[in-house]
Amino acid sequence: MSPPVLQHHDEIKSSALELIGNTPIVALDRLYTGPGRILAKCEFMNPGASIKCRSSLYMIQKALDEKLLKPGEPVLEVTSGNQGCGLAVVCAVLQHPLTLTMSKGNSAQRAVHMAALGAKCIRVPQVEGTYGNVTLADVKAAEAEGLRIVEKTGAYYVNQFNNEANTLAHYETTGPEIWRQTGGRVDAFVATVGTAGTFTGTSKYLKEKNPELKAYVVEPQGSEPIKQLPITKPLHVLQGSGYGCIPNLFNYSTMNDTISVTDEESKHYKKLLGTKEGLYVGYTSGANVAAAVKLLESGTLPDDAWVVTTLNDSGLKYSPTPDEIELSD
């Protein structure tokens, strides 16, 4: 029997790589009723369930284009989880063996996700943090193990914290998508900072389109180096963000100000995104929305301002704590 003829073949994607980007924007009108409006870009809808799929594709493609990586050669990266999951998507499709080093403080769900996509995840013991709370020292420990493996195996090191393709991914995709989807109506952009790729690339594009646009960095309270404050609380719930240092990819020229958010505020808005909007997302997403609410309620922007932010990843990447969810038998 002949296989059925598929109609509308132009709608069929050739691989998971074509599922990256072009995520929808949703208005959070149930969670926040004004003044102004919060629009959230649904980055958890990428195939690796986070915004990091964008930079993963760009960084690997750049390495291939520049002959730094050859087809089939091994790849290594140090990750808090999301970059690793994004790279696992890309490397599975392109058939590159992938090894990832990640602090044991990052959620085990991320390691499970990476392994399911064929990657090897090496979980590195923490130096000073606790499970769910990862410090810069913990990241450095994972980095040291990753670099040791690179030295031993010759694997291509992606190096997301220093890779300009990380920023370029958001300059060429996230920013233009936001501009198109809002019809050019963006008064402010708000984002947490890990590598700074998302904030730097997106804000650069949006400010080129509208020099009056305001861009705000979201930092966890007590770990605000971009605000140039001493680190008083290195442990916080924003995995993959707020490491207590200014990332090399960060650029002050596109930032107007910073907004600090507490763990409690991040958890509160993470929960509201679920119960009010039907969106199960992670802690940095909660922090982004908390910061957007603070900004609009501050009176800094016009009453009819539209603030765009990102919902960075799925809540399925985290281990819920007892105070966040009640399960009945």
Structure explained in plain terms:
- The chain is an alpha/beta fold and 329 residues long.
- The chain has eight helices and ten strands.
- The chain folds into two domains: 16-45 and 174-317, Rossmann fold (3-Layer(aba) Sandwich); 51-157, Rossmann fold (3-Layer(aba) Sandwich), CATH 3.40.50.1100.
- The strands form two sheets. Strands 1-2-10-7-8-9 form a six-stranded mixed sheet, sandwiched between helices.
- Strand 3 (75-79), helix 2 and strand 4 (98-103) form a beta-alpha-beta unit.
- Helix 2 packs parallel to helix 3.
- The N and C termini lie far apart (49 Å).
At a glance:
This protein is α/β, with parallel strands linked by helices. The chain has helices at 52-65, 82-94, 108-116, 136-153, 164-181, 197-209, 263-277, 283-297; strands at 25-27, 37-42, 75-79, 98-103, 120-124, 156-157, 188-192, 214-220, 257-261, 306-311.
Task: Give the helix/strand layout.
Elements: E1 25-27, E2 37-42, H1 52-65, E3 75-79, H2 82-94, E4 98-103, H3 108-116, E5 120-124, H4 136-153, E6 156-157, H5 164-181, E7 188-192, H6 197-209, E8 214-220, E9 257-261, H7 263-277, H8 283-297, E10 306-311
Parallel strand pairs: 2-10, 3-4, 3-6, 4-5, 7-8, 7-10, 8-9
Antiparallel strand pairs: 1-2
Helix pairs in contact: 1-2, 1-5, 2-3, 5-6, 7-8
